[in-house]
Amino acid sequence: MNPVTREQRDEAIAHFRYEGTLVKDCPYGSGHINDTFLLVFEIAEMGRIKVILQRMNSTAFPKPVEVMENITGVTSFLKKKIIENGGDPERETLNVIPAVDGKPYYIDSTGDYWRSYKFITDASTYDLVEKPEQFYESAVAFGNFQSLLSDYPAETLHETIEKFHDTRNRFALFKKAVEEDVMGRAASVEKEIRFVLEREEIANCFAEMLDRHELPLRVTHNDTKLNNVMLDDKTGKGICVIDLDTVMPGLAMNDFGDSIRFGASTALEDETDLTKVSCSMELFELYTKGFLKGCDGKLTAKEIELMPMGAKTMTFECGMRFLTDYLQGDKYFRIHREGHNLDRCRTQFKLVEDMEQKWYTMNEIVKKYSNN
């Protein structure tokens, strides 16, 4: 997408239901997908209020209207639940500011889509865990997200990214990439290819259970990283789950698993020294405890039992996607060096192996907190 021009931003600002006089607007945040701006308005006797304005990335999200329908449906539902529970809907969920025509988005004269949210005050996001309590609080927040939305009709949500966490389909795409071998790289990664092919049962596990209607479809976030939870500046508690672009029908175990894949790893996602890569059982236990506390009994016994499988599946899927992209010429994930996707794939596969070795421990930890 082209950079946002001053004219574009001014046009967008003029087409949302803002009050007061604009006194400041500047780029905001560390996100790489949407273009985000912080606006500050002066309102006569009320002082200043902050809002977020975003240009949506139509390359990453080719169906922006469906994305916004999912977001408004989920946030309206959350607002009612939060009020019922005596919470603060202004801080505990995203609040969409409508455009002048009442829609939750504005299409500018160049065809780009914009949206706006109320700014959540006195809370911060963190890209990296600075202390274990933050990881725990993010777990409680994502578990609470599951709990609050446990009776939302997930099947009514749009699948805005088709087959996003369909691991069986990802496996089929991987095999196709190996067969086509468009870059002539397959021979040099035979070990990694064999690693995937030997674990086809991981790819099929959840899909087959869904086929047999053994798992409930849930509202899932699908990007459960620490930086998608706002933590209160005073209490440190997780107060609001943000970045709802990937909210879709899915499996609770996958949301749990993706958090573990990223947050419980002892190394960066592209670490080249594989001796540094393992799944920390301390962090796994901390997150399990927080997630189940947040879920507040809303998951089925089968979903809880399969949480370790969620961690292994999401890690396996991610490694498989990195390897697929490497075989296809690094078209999807942005790389910063030769073989970057291969390094990423190897860290994920090392984590899968480590989980396999710690499988008994992981299951015992989940059992420990499943009855709390």
From TrEMBL:
Give this protein's Gene Ontology molecular function annotations: transferase activity
Origin, by domain of life? Answer: Bacteria
Is Transferase one of the keywords?
A: yes
* Alphabetized Pfam families for the sequence: APH
SUPFAM superfamilies noted in UniProt: Protein kinase-like (PK-like)
- Which intervals hold domain Aminoglycoside phosphotransferase? 114-262
Arranged from A to Z, the UniProt key words for this protein are: Transferase
Establish whether keyword Protein transport is in the entry.
no
State the protein's name. Aminoglycoside phosphotransferase family protein
- Organism equals Dorea longicatena
Q: According to the entry, what is the taxonomic lineage of the organism?
A: Bacteria, Bacillati, Bacillota, Clostridia, Lachnospirales
